[in-house]
């Protein structure tokens, strides 16, 4: 069960005695755990929680779950442990399974793991049968729309079409999407303006510190083969103190996307198939398709090689940031 559905279950008071929070997206895992504890611990007394980490043994957890609470109505056990699902623990897990199948009514057991779980394991299937599994999967730019809409509802804001597409386009340039960072940045909209509607300039001002924002226009200019605008923006970025490697990273990602799209165009993929294959929301894919059609695939391949060499030279100090200017000119030629 993904985050949104799992949160809905909590809000509907469909509570379980057993929870598994699994996955590497720490922001979603922490947010779900916080919401769950607020529901089952309305007085928010964290002293009522029995906490265990990787050092906990299965026997430790069984004993904690089986102990009657004396001063609280509920026995809450939270275990952050990646070892429970390792193959080395399989020979000890039958006792644990016996507990899960017969969890005392006075206990709520919450297990957290950062690992991607093997759903074929008996332990996983038992937890799925008797409890609720929340998968904290990484969010990518192509599947972040629902999270963004939920976040805007949470802060009482409504972006117009232009601003929402601008935000998605910007996020698509991020090598890795950090929900925790985006959450904090979008919270600033509540302080930035009293208006309910969100406009493109609002997002530009809020997110102006992101290198992805500052280099976004540069990548777009290169993709459009607008060499004059690209060189102007490059000079502006460098003079503003933006790290050349940050610019290079975003430009490389953009050119790689164009190369992939050009490859699939050559195999007669349509826009929807390209969007799914490359991992882009459709309107971004359509925009990049228009850019990719301006290049031949050899130019894009050579650009990727040149950008990789520039990355090495910049990181080893054997090249000046001006090297980017030459690469941009060659790409746009």
UniProtKB/TrEMBL annotation:
Keywords: DNA replication, DNA-directed DNA polymerase, Nucleotidyltransferase, Transferase. The keyword Methyltransferase does not apply. It catalyses: DNA(n) + a 2'-deoxyribonucleoside 5'-triphosphate = DNA(n+1) + diphosphate. GO terms for molecular function: DNA binding; DNA-directed DNA polymerase activity. GO terms for cellular component: DNA polymerase III complex. It comes from the Bacteria. Residues 19-135 form the DNA polymerase III delta N-terminal domain. Residues 214-328 form the DNA polymerase III delta subunit-like C-terminal domain. GO terms for biological process: DNA-templated DNA replication. Its EC number is 2.7.7.7. Coiled coil: none annotated. SUPFAM superfamilies: P-loop containing nucleoside triphosphate hydrolases, post-AAA+ oligomerization domain-like. NCBIfam families: holA. Belongs to the DNA polymerase HolA subunit family. This is DNA polymerase III subunit delta. It comes from Pectinatus brassicae.
